[in-house]
Amino acid sequence: MHAIVDPDAPPATRTRARRRWWRFRLPWVKTAVSAPTDDDELLIDNTTEREWVLYLGYRNLGIIPANSQAVYRVAKIGLLTARRVDAPVGERYLTLHISPSVRIIQIVDISGGEGFYELQVAAGRQQFRDTA
For the residues 83-93, what does the mean pLDDT come to? Predict the structure, then answer.
């Protein structure tokens, strides 16, 4: 037996099931991979006598001059890398994994002028120092 279908009749529809209530009560917004979506301030304090090129993930933050500070508005998650502007071929990058709780990062000469540098998270909740 064949069913008779009226081609002008709208298709039958049904309502969607109600979404779970707890999904919309969470206090934070996430992307599909749980990355934060908000940009926040990150202060980079260069305490060395060298200029550095900075990257956060694949994003180029630019060059920070010697003995200066720079504030960037970025999503603070991922790998921060720094490399000297005048670095020879083959010199390693400075790297540091950061999280949203990080506010201040310092580039520090750990050797006293011999050319060994490190990225460090500044301890405590320090205020930005005046650059004027």
Answer: 91
Indicate if the alpha-carbon torsion angle 114, 118, 124, 128 is positive or negative: positive
Q: How many domains does the chain have?
A: 1
Q: Residue 85: what pLDDT?
A: 93
**Which segments of the chain are extended strands (E)?**
40-46, 52-56, 59-64, 68-74, 78-84, 94-98, 104-109, 117-121
Residue 98 is encoded by which pair of tokens? 């950061």
pTM above 0.85, yes or no: no
Asked whether residue 1 is assigned to any structural domain, the reply reads no
Cα 59 versus chain centre, distance: 9
Tokens of 45: 């304090």
Summary count for the chain: helices (H), strands (E): 0, 8
CATH number, domain containing residue 45: 2.60.40.2890
Q: Give me the DSSP letters along 59-75.
A: EEEEEE-TTEEEEEEE-
pLDDT of residue 61: 94
Query: Using CA atoms, how far apart are residues 119 and 28, in angstroms rounded to an integer?
Result: 29
